[in-house]
Amino acid sequence: MRAMRMWTHKKERRYFLRVDVKLPAVFCVLGPYGKAQTRPHPGKVVNLTHEGCCLELSFLKVDGFHMHRCLEEPERYPLRLSLHPSAEATWHLTSQVVWINRDLERPGGEFKVGLAFEPGSELPRGWRRKAAGK
User: Fold this and answer.
1) Contacts for 24 with CB less than 8 Å, ≥ 6 apart
2) What domains can be seen in the chain, in order of their start residue?
3) In this predicted model, what pLDDT tens digit does every residue of 73-112 receive, in sequence order?
4) Phi, psi values for residue 11, rounded to 5°
């Protein structure tokens, strides 16, 4: 496990360290009353904890809907996220966007989106082992 550190002179602020993973994911933006605002789109979860994850995307505009709206109004526009840790398992979670960063190191400038899982939307027991493929 590694903690994400934004500045070398500051301590990690997260209480629980994130686990580095590479999990295929599918997400859609939900609107008022839980109705899907967008079609499902692929992404990749690159780190994970029971409180949230980092979703890697190559775009921020989804079916005419810009992901910054999810950041500006997280309660109104949550994400429905489906993670696929193995061929026989799928985890469905509802989350809110808490930050968006552009990764300039990657070709095409991929985006990283920080998600916080909503209360009641939890990973299953033993998720660390399943996410690591063990």
Assistant:
1) 42, 44, 83, 84
2) 19-131 (2.40.10.220)
3) 999 999 999 998 887 888 999 999 999 998 877 776 689 9
4) -80, 155
